[in-house]
C-alpha cells in the first residue's frame, strides 16, 4: 500500500511505500506500476518504480496534481492478478580480465575469490527496478557477508556487460558508462537491445535472475 | 525535382535532432530528452509551416555551418542566435524568428548563441531520419534516437525527404527574456538540510558551472549542508529536480538525465521556468525563489497561454 503521496515539483506524484527496502514492499510498488500502466490514465506520461517509491509524472497541459492524486487514491489494485514475471539465466564470466574489483572485494569482505564466487552464484536474485542507464537491472539481495560500499572514486568507464556489486544489490552495465560498483565479471548476453522497438530490455522489475558462471572460452564463443 | 540535402561543413559543438521527447520509458531507464527549450522548438516549426512535432536541429553555443543543395525552400532560426546566410552574390546577417528563402548552394553559418545556450534551426519540410521509441530526439550519452544516437558530424549529409515549396515569408517579434529568479517547489528531502543550508539555498546567488550539458546543470555557490544523510535509497528523477550530493553543490537534472538517482532532492524547478533555465550559460548568476504548488500550476498555465498566443500570431 502507498503510505503517503506528495508532489515532486508541479508535474509529478511522489508515492512512498515505506522506508524499508525488501521484496514485499517492492512487489507492492510493481503491482501499482503495472495497474497504472495498464489503465493508461489520461495525462500520465511516465512511471518510475524504484525500491520503495513510485513516481508518476504527468503533462501539466492535460491534468494536474489533484486530478492524478484522486485517480491514484481511488485505484483498485487487483491483488490476485498475476504479473507475468520470468526467471532468467544470465551467463557471467569471472576471468581476471573482467573481474576488475576482485582484489578489492577480497580485502573489503575478508573472503577469498572462491568463496565470493560461490556465494554470488549460489543464489536467486529479484529485480527491484531498472534504470539509471537504459535497461540496467538492480538485483537483490546479496548475503550479508557480500555487501561492500561503492568505489571511493567511481570509474569513468565501466565496460559494457560488467556485473557489479554494491551493498545488498547486484547490477549489470547495459552500456559502457561511468560507475562506482565493484565489478566481479561480465556477461556476453545483450541485456538491453536498442534495436527492438518493443520491450528492448531483457530484465524487468519482478523477474528472478540466476547467474551462471561460464569459462572465458565459452564467453568468447557465446551465441545467443 | 532535385534531391535536397544539407551538407554539414562544420557540425558545431553539440548539434542534434530534437523534437517533443519520449514518453513512457522512464521505467526502463530511458529519459525524456526532446528539445531543451520547448517554446523555441515549437515556434521554429510553426514559422516554417511544419507540423509542430517535427524534429528540428538543436545546437548549443557554436552551431553548424551548413550548405544547402536542392529545391527552393525556407528556413528559420529561433533562440538568441548570431548567424549569417551566404547566397551566391551576397551575405545576410540573419535575424531570428524570421524565415529566409533557401536556394541551391546557399550556406547557413550559425556562429554562436548570444548570452544563451540553445538555438533551433527548422526547414520547411522533413528530414530523412529514423525515429526510435516514438521520437527523433538524440540522446548522445545513451546513443538513442535518430542519427544512430550521435551528434551531427563534420562532412555529414542529411537528406531532406520532403520540401514544402512556395513558403510565404513569416516573422514574429519575440525576445527571449533572461531569467534570474528560478522558481522552485520544495523537494521531498528538503528537511535533510540544515536550517542554515535551507536559508542559503533561497537567499544566496549560485553560478552556473561549465560542467553543464543536456543531462544536468551544475551550480557553484554556498555549500548546502546536509544533516541527515547524503544518500537516499535510489529513486526516480525528473527534469528540473535539484539534487545535492555530498559535496553540497546543487545539480539540476535536465532533459537527458539518468532516470534514477540517490542524492537528496532539495527542490524542483517549476515547469514554467524550465525553458529559460536551460538557456543560462556558464557563469550566469541565479537565485532560487520558493513557491507553492498551486502558484506553480498557475504560472505554468500562463506560460502555456503565452506560448499558444505566440503560435497563433504566426
| CATH level 1 class label of the largest domain in chain A | Mainly Beta
What is the element string of chain A, with H for helices and E for strands?
A: EEHEEHEHHEEEEEEEEH
Estimate the mean pLDDT confidence of chain A. Answer: 94
Integer count of domains of chain B: 2
DSSP strand (E) fraction of chain A? 25-35%
Shape of chain B: elongated
Q: What is the CA-atom radius of gyration of chain A, in angstroms? A: 19 Å
Indicate the proportion of strand residues of chain B. 25-35%
CATH arch. level architecture of the largest domain in chain A: Beta Barrel
Quantity of strands of chain B, as a count:
21
Number of helices of chain A: 5
Poorly predicted regions of chain A: none
Spatial arrangement of strands, main beta sheet of chain A: 5-13-6-7-10-9-12
**Cα separation of the termini of chain A:** 39 Å
Helix/strand order of chain B: EEHEEEEEEEEEEEHEEEEEEEHEH
Secondary-structure content class of chain B: alpha+beta
* Greatest interface and its participating residue counts: A-B, 44 and 40 residues
Radius of gyration of chain B: 20 Å
The total of beta strands of chain A comes to 13
> What is the total domain count of chain A?
2
Amino acid at each position: 500500500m502507498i503510505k503517503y503521496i506528495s508532489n515532486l515539483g508541479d508535474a509529478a506524484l511522489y508515492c512512498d511505500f515505506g522506508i524499508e527496502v525488501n521484496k514485499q514492499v517492492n512487489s507492492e510498488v510493481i503491482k501499482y506500476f503495472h495497474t497504472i500502466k495498464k489503465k493508461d490514465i489520461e495525462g500520465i506520461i511516465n512511471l518510475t518504480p524504484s525500491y520503495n517509491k513510485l513516481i508518476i509524472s504527468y503533462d501539466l497541459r492535460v491534468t494536474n496534481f489533484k486530478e492524478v492524486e484522486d485517480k491514484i487514491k481511488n485505484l483498485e489494485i487487483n491483488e490476485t492478478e498475476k504479473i507475468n514475471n520470468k526467471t532468467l539465466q544470465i551467463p557471467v564470466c569471472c576471468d581476471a580480465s573482467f573481474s576488475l574489483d576482485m582484489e578489492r572485494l577480497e580485502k573489503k569482505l575478508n573472503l577469498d575469490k572462491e568463496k565470493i564466487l560461490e556465494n554470488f552464484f549460489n543464489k536467486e536474485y529479484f529485480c527491484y527496478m531498472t534504470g539509471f542507464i537504459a535497461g540496467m537491472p538492480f538485483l537483490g539481495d546479496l548475503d550479508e557477508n557480500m555487501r561492500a560500499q561503492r568505489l571511493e572514486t567511481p570509474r569513468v568507464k565501466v565496460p559494457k556487460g560488467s556485473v557489479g556489486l554494491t551493498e545488498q544489490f547486484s547490477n549489470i552495465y547495459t552500456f559502457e558508462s561511468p560507475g562506482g560498483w565493484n565489478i566481479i565479471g561480465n556477461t556476453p548476453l545483450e541485456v538491453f537491445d536498442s534495436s527492438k522497438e518493443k520491450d528492448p530490455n531483457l530484465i524487468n522489475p519482478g523477474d528472478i535472475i540466476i547467474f551462471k558462471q561460464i569459462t572465458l572460452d565459452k564467453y568468447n564463443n557465446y551465441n545467443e | 525535382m532535385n534531391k535536397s540535402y544539407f551538407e554539414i561543413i562544420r557540425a558545431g559543438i553539440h548539434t542534434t535532432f530534437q523534437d517533443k521527447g519520449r514518453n513512457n520509458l522512464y521505467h526502463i531507464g530511458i529519459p525524456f530528452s526532446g528539445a531543451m527549450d520547448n517554446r523555441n522548438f515549437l515556434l521554429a516549426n510553426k514559422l516554417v509551416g511544419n507540423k509542430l512535432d517535427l524534429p528540428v536541429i538543436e545546437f548549443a553555443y557554436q552551431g553548424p555551418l551548413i550548405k544547402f543543395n536542392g529545391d527552393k525552400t525556407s528556413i528559420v532560426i529561433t533562440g538568441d542566435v548570431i548567424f549569417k546566410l551566404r547566397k551566391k552574390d551576397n551575405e545576410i546577417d540573419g535575424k531570428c524568428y524570421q524565415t529566409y528563402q533557401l536556394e541551391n548552394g546557399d550556406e547557413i553559418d550559425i556562429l554562436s548563441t548570444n548570452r544563451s545556450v540553445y538555438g533551433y534551426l527548422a526547414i520547411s519540410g522533413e528530414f530523412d531520419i529514423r525515429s526510435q521509441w516514438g521520437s527523433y530526439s538524440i540522446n548522445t550519452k545513451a546513443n538513442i534516437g535518430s542519427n544512430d544516437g550521435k551528434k551531427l558530424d563534420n562532412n555529414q549529409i542529411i537528406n531532406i525527404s520532403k520540401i514544402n515549396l512556395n513558403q510565404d515569408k513569416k516573422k514574429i517579434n519575440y525576445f527571449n527574456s533572461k531569467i534570474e529568479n528560478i522558481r522552485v517547489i520544495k523537494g521531498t528531502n528538503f528537511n535533510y538540510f540544515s536550517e542554515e543550508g535551507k536559508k542559503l539555498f533561497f537567499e544566496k546567488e549560485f553560478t552556473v558551472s561549465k560542467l553543464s550539458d543536456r543531462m544536468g546543470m551544475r551550480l557553484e555557490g554556498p555549500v548546502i549542508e546536509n544533516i541527515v544523510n547524503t544518500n537516499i535509497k535510489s529513486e526516480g528523477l525528473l527534469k528540473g529536480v535539484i539534487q545535492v550530493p555530498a559535496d553540497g553543490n546543487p545539480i539540476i537534472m535536465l532533459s537527458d538525465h539518468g532516470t534514477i538517482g540517490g542524492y537528496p532532492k532539495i527542490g524542483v524547478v517549476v515547469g514554467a521556468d524550465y525553458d529559460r533555465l536551460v538557456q543560462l550559460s556558464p557563469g550566469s548568476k541565479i537565485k532560487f525563489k520558493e513557491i507553492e504548488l498551486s502558484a506553480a500550476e498557475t504560472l505554468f498555465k500562463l506560460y502555456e497561454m503565452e506560448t499558444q498566443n505566440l503560435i497563433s500570431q504566426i
